[in-house]
């Protein structure tokens, strides 16, 4: 990913403070820098610390590899002003309300950068869920790019929320979207309009209309029909999947990837190397949204009774360092030690791309979904909240690359071990689902290559950014 030449453009990138938003934003930063844009990447102090600490043992920082290639990227911190990652799940309302605290710190940073940097800031690239960012750009007479980290379907559903409200209780029709059941809607469209989270998101979708560009972590080969239907109202450019290039281009060595995980990782390679191809199911759910102990026990027994080998990433909900054995059935770890591995954290893409892994049992977060698609794995969907029910609907019903184990109608129901075991077997043995997933994987490789639609869309945004800056200077 070498730099194509300097543009004289300086953009600051401000992700929402959460790993699922920071990771794709870091990939976007590298891609924009490769187009000749100088990047200042902004994190809260605690996130800056955890990401830099994670790389201290290697002697590099999160952008060292990119900088060695000539890309102009700086990592900077603003004061902590939002709850941390492990507090976020239990303090979602406080977290949502606190996001506005970032604005004054970012404004001060921009002023300081303009005084100290030979190239003044000309653009703010911000997470769509930071509703203050586009108005701040307008206030400071900067250009604005709103970065949507999820799929365009969820963007369009939220953009057309008035249609969902009008069709409440029945099948919902959104332009470019296959018919939706109420259970498929993102969580924020099921809550009261007075709910804090709903108010925050409503504001975000008002301010995003004022952005100069919207870029999304998706690709046209997956969602072209949704983008086309939305285009007249809102121009959204798909520039994804925003994943480390080594996992999208198999000719690049994997060791060149610099990850962003800030937790101690378990190396699962030896365990996987000893297993036959497509024989292991990888199990991982949200690091933010908790799951009941009774449901964890049923999942454990379902996996055990499926007779498939597994790697399960399991952490105590809301606690960074806590023993998880108490959450599992008595004897589970000992009885499954020959064919199972329970770890607190691992390199997910590294595991998913291993030949021994044959399926992904997931909460259907968008980053996990893209990772599974990019390596051609079918998915067993167990959504927990947020937009995950919509993602699961796409996986099971639209793309037919997986199975649904839980819907938005039964969020309080504990799914039993027998159903889990049966669905695990169907997933691992479902050749049609596997072929469909592998076809999507091949589409991804076409989209992200040099000259592919995702690369071309990013190039178009950069060209339009250059044009606007020239127009504004005349």
From TrEMBL:
Signal sequence annotation: none
Taxonomic superkingdom: Eukaryota
InterPro entries cross-referenced by the UniProt entry: Glyco_transf_N, UDP_glucos_trans, UDP_glycos_trans_CS
Broad class of enzyme this protein falls into: transferase
EC number assigned by the record: 2.4.1.-
Stored SUPFAM superfamilies: UDP-Glycosyltransferase/glycogen phosphorylase (SSF53756)
Glycosyltransferase N-terminal domain sequence ranges: 10-243
Gene3D superfamilies the UniProt entry points to: Glycogen Phosphorylase B (3.40.50.2000)
GO MF annotations, alphabetized: quercetin 3-O-glucosyltransferase activity; quercetin 7-O-glucosyltransferase activity
Residues spanning the membrane: none
Annotated keywords: Glycosyltransferase, Transferase
Entry-linked Pfam families: Glyco_transf_N (PF26168), UDPGT (PF00201)
Family: Belongs to the UDP-glycosyltransferase family.
Protein name as catalogued: Glycosyltransferase
């Amino acid at each position: 990913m070498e730099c194509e030449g300097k543009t004289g453009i300086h953009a600051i990138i401000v992700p929402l403070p959460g790993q699922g938003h920071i990771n794709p934003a870091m990939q976007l930063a590298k891609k924009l820098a490769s187009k000749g844009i100088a990047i200042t990447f902004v994190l809260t102090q605690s996130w800056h610390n955890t990401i830099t600490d994670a790389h201290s043992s290697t002697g590099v920082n999160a952008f060292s590899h990119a900088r060695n290639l000539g890309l102009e990227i700086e990592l900077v911190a603003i004061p902590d002003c939002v709850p941390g990652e492990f507090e976020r799940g239990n303090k979602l309302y406080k977290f949502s309300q606190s996001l506005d605290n970032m604005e004054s710190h970012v404004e001060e940073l921009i002023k300081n950068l303009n005084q100290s940097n030979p190239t003044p800031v000309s653009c703010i690239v911000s997470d769509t869920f930071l509703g203050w960012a586009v108005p701040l750009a307008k206030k400071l007479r900067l250009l604005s790019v709103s970065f949507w980290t999820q799929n365009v379907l969820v963007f369009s559903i939220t953009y057309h929320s008035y249609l969902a409200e009008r069709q409440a209780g029945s099948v919902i029709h959104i332009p470019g979207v296959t018919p939706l059941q109420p259970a498929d809607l993102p969580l924020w469209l099921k809550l009261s309009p007075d709910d804090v989270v709903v108010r925050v998101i409503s504001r975000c979708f008002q301010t995003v209309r004022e952005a100069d560009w919207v870029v999304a972590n998706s690709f046209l080969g997956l969602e072209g029909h949704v983008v086309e239907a939305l285009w007249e109202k809102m121009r959204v450019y798909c520039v994804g999947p925003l994943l480390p290039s080594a996992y999208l281009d198999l000719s690049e060595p994997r060791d060149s990837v610099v990850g962003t995980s800030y937790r101690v990782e378990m190396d699962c390679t030896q365990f996987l190397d000893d297993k036959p191809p497509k024989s292991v199911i990888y199990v991982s759910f949200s690091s933010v949204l908790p799951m009941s102990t009774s449901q964890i026990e049923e999942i454990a027994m379902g996996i055990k009774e499926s007779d498939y080998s597994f790697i399960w990433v399991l952490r105590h909900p809301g606690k960074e360092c806590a023993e998880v054995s108490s959450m599992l059935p008595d004897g589970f770890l000992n009885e499954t030690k020959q064919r199972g591995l329970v770890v607190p954290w691992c390199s997910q893409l590294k595991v998913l791309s291993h030949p021994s892994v044959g399926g992904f049992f997931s909460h259907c977060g968008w980053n996990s979904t893209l990772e599974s698609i990019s390596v051609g794995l079918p998915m067993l969907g167990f959504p927990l909240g947020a937009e995950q029910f919509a993602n699961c609907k796409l996986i099971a019903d639209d793309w037919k690359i997986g199975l649904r184990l839980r819907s938005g109608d039964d969020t309080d129901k504990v799914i039993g071990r027998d159903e889990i075991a049966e669905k695990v077997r169907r997933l691992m043995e479902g050749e049609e689902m596997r072929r469909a997933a592998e076809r999507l994987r091949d589409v991804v490789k076409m989209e992200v290559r040099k000259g592919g639609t995702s690369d071309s869309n990013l190039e178009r945004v950069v060209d339009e950014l250059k044009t606007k800056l020239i127009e504004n200077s005349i």
